[in-house]
């Protein structure tokens, strides 16, 4: 699907505030509320917009410890196998196949170091994991929920 500059601005505005009304967005992109709704509906129907969600501050719910874990996997472990396994762990907030030495990179969040260690041990216990290398996050410098240019 082709998206134009107006669609891109609508997406950026929804990323910034998914609860913004079509009228508010329309004012910002010079369209009527019904025109914005039609565009959003079209982007949802074609999969450009996959859904709307609440963004929860991990610190507000007590999960203040983060780490990125490189997974090194046995033999011909597929991305699908890794995906199925990491979804079983509630501490996993993201997982990616990567280039380089590691087979995957997993982003974990936990309440504290003991919780993180428990999560790491459970992740390491997956049958295909041969080793891991972890990096603990000290502070977040940039975090953006969106895609593309901001509104």
TrEMBL record:
<feature type="domain" description="HTH asnC-type">
    <location>
        <begin position="3"/>
        <end position="64"/>
    </location>
</feature>
<dbReference type="InterPro" id="IPR019887">
    <property type="entry name" value="Tscrpt_reg_AsnC/Lrp_C"/>
</dbReference>
<dbReference type="InterPro" id="IPR019888">
    <property type="entry name" value="Tscrpt_reg_AsnC-like"/>
</dbReference>
<dbReference type="Pfam" id="PF01037">
    <property type="entry name" value="AsnC_trans_reg"/>
</dbReference>
<keyword id="KW-0805">Transcription regulation</keyword>
<dbReference type="InterPro" id="IPR036388">
    <property type="entry name" value="WH-like_DNA-bd_sf"/>
</dbReference>
<dbReference type="InterPro" id="IPR011008">
    <property type="entry name" value="Dimeric_a/b-barrel"/>
</dbReference>
<keyword id="KW-0804">Transcription</keyword>
<dbReference type="InterPro" id="IPR000485">
    <property type="entry name" value="AsnC-type_HTH_dom"/>
</dbReference>
<dbReference type="InterPro" id="IPR036390">
    <property type="entry name" value="WH_DNA-bd_sf"/>
</dbReference>
<dbReference type="Pfam" id="PF13404">
    <property type="entry name" value="HTH_AsnC-type"/>
</dbReference>
<protein>
    <submittedName>
        <fullName>Lrp/AsnC family transcriptional regulator</fullName>
    </submittedName>
</protein>
<keyword id="KW-0238">DNA-binding</keyword>
